[in-house]
Amino acid sequence: MKVVFHIDELEKWEETTKNVKNLVKIAPEIDTVILVNGIAINGFLEEKHLSFIKMSGVHFHACNNALHANNITKEQLPENVVIVPAGVLDLIELQSVGYAYIKP
């Protein structure tokens, strides 16, 4: 199974963190991607999210358009974050190959 969690609101980072940690605890084999776009892109810069972002077995995608809109550079992101050209396109592509879509 595969799942993509979509964060586009800054205040949804905490809820997503809880959801993903609970999921990984009971089903670590699920391929989990967190796609972040919009204003929520700023969550990558918050110290309180760093341990979650470095969580083993979870992949983080950052929308390049959101990075530019919020004046965030690639160098400011944790090294395991993958930059995708557009968050919306990433969601479409992931869903087209079987990822379930979750928006906390």
UniProtKB/TrEMBL annotation:
Cross-referenced Gene3D superfamilies: DsrEFH-like
SUPFAM superfamilies: DsrEFH-like
InterPro entries: DsrEFH-like (IPR027396), Sulphur_relay_DsrE/F-like (IPR003787)
Superkingdom of the organism of origin: Bacteria
Protein's UniProt name: DsrE family protein
